[in-house]
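Format notes (please read before filing issues)

Several people have asked whether sequences and structure tokens are stored in separate files. They are not. Every record keeps both together, in the order shown below: the sequence lines, then the token lines. Line labels are part of the format and must not be stripped during preprocessing.
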Amino acid sequence: MKLKTKHFGEIEYDPSLAIDFDEGLPGFPENKKFIVLLENQEEDTFCWLQSIDDGDLAFALINIYNVIPEYNPLVRSEEVAALGDFSENNLLVYNVVVIPDDIKQMRANLRAPIVINPDTKKGKQVILDNEEYEMKYKIFDEVERSKSAAVGAY
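Then the structure lines:
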């Protein structure tokens, strides 16, 4: 199918890859269907969560584990029960990123990750019990360090 978007122009997507957010996202309850736009799920640090319901709505996401491998969100099982059965192998966790004009001020919301079960195609943004994680965590330095480490590994 085709979708006209604000940030990517007209894109082609496979409707079978749509992720259902039954409750929408906080602040956007009417947007319930999204697609994740990325090149390589294992390697890409950044991707986009594009609304199918509203082509103007897309969120920049970060695979935080590529940057902060020790990130350990404590999610209550009842919070994600509607996503279906999952394990570490079929669970995707992303964090919303705000990228301002000054990229060094880039912030990630570590307190409210986006959790997706790719098997059931269900997703939800959850609020963590982890008090130590910030909603506006400055992430730029960690991204730069992880890029340098990856380059040094080759």
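For reference, the curators noted about this record: The chain has two helices and eleven strands. The chain has a mean pLDDT of 90.
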